[in-house]
Amino acid sequence: MSGTQQFDFSVDLMRSILWQYEGAPRAVALARHDQAWIDGHHSDFWCSWHRDVFDLDTANEFGLSIWARILGVSLEIGEARRVDGVFGFGAYSRNFENGNFGRASDTQVQLDMESARKLLKLRWFQLTMRPTVPNINAALEMVFGPGAAFIVDPYDMTWVTFFFLSAPDYKLRRLLENTDILPRPSTVGAKWQVQVRPSWGFGPNHLNFENGNFGA
After folding, report:
1. Is this model's pTM higher than 0.85 or not?
2. Rounded Cα–Cα distance for residues 111 and 178 (Å)
């Protein structure tokens, strides 16, 4: 993610030439030949690895699958079987000797890359972040973008509510409805809802007199 540690992948093979061998042209030429190969391949490899695997902001499909193993989450979510509106003939909605025109059982659906990236980031925050309201709001900003979502905590260890300031698209809705990935204190429940109109209150989280937001 943004802020990940930056590395210097350069290698100076000429440092391996001891002073007593500086006058040996073949040893120096060999080191320079190897240095040219390192300059053209070594740094490019590690820069690509950092971009495609190490950094969650830019990881490709392979990198996301590696992160899923590290963080212990699946990049597939369950989809309930379709029981209504299945086209077919007769009492059991059969088609031409092959069963129903519909899904007969529950199935697993692979997340698209951006949904998988959000899932992995939220899981990373779950495991590494102290779940205070400011920290969770900072995490939501990093995952969903500035001003896209915020959390309200009644401080009674029952539920926290995540407010989204615009209606989630179907990909995000699927993620929210089928996974328990929103960061929060342990044993505290989580709810989410859409709040498209600003609420009146005090401070950055629009708090009123110890009750949360003046809004519904």
Report:
1. no
2. 11
